């Protein structure tokens, strides 16, 4: 059974860093497209980053480019999201998700992903 578990969230001051982990069981992370999403209170869930299974290419939302970095450790079946220079507007619940093998769309779409983790809270506050 496909299962995704996020961890690594917490509270950090503006300018700080966090690394989120998405541990996968029941699938091989380099076989599936893996995405990171976030949802702030009162807002729609939005795509943050995505790694294609076909070529390993990584996409980022404009709001996080140059600050967030996605990586994958196939030996550990884990995908990471390194978040640097965090801002208060990055505060949200962060989710990882998986979809069938292929490539990420330029705009990472929630509806493309069928398997989701439970989420981890990230709070950026002084």
What radius of gyration results from the CA coordinates?
Answer: 13 Å
Biggest beta sheet attributes:
7 strands, mixed
- The CA-CA distance between the termini, in Å, is 40 Å
Instruction: Give unreliable regions as ranges.
Output: none
Indicate the overall shape: globular
Question: What structural class should be given to the helix and strand makeup?
Answer: mainly beta
Percent of residues in β-strands: over 45%
Helix content: under 10%
Give the number of DSSP strands.
11
Pattern of helices and strands: EEEEEEEEEEE
User: Quick check: average pLDDT?
Assistant: 94
Helix segment tally: 0
Put the structure in a nutshell.
The protein is an all-beta fold and about 130 residues long. The protein has strands at about 5, 10, 20-25, 35-40, 45-50, 60, 70-75, 80-85, 90-100, 115, 120-125.
Explain the overall architecture.
The chain is mostly beta strands and about 130 residues long. It is about 0% helix and about 45% strand. It has strands at about 5, 10, 20-25, 35-40, 45-50, 60, 70-75, 80-85, 90-100, 115, 120-125. Strands 2, 4, 5, 6, 9, 10 and 11 form a seven-stranded mixed beta sheet that branches. A four-stranded antiparallel beta sheet has the order 1-3-8-7, with no helix packed on it.
């Amino acid at each position: 059974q496909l299962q995704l578990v996020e961890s690594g969230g917490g509270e950090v001051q503006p300018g700080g860093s966090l690394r989120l982990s998405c541990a996968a069981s029941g699938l091989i992370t380099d076989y599936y497209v893996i995405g990171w999403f976030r949802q702030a209170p009162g807002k729609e869930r939005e795509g943050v980053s995505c790694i294609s299974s076909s070529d390993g290419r990584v996409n980022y939302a404009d709001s996080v480019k140059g600050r967030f970095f996605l990586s994958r450790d196939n030996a550990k079946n884990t995908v990471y999201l390194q978040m640097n220079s965090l801002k208060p507007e990055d505060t949200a619940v962060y989710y990882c998700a998986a979809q069938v093998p292929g490539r990420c769309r330029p705009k990472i779409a929630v509806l493309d992903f069928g398997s989701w983790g439970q989420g981890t809270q990230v709070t950026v506050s002084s």
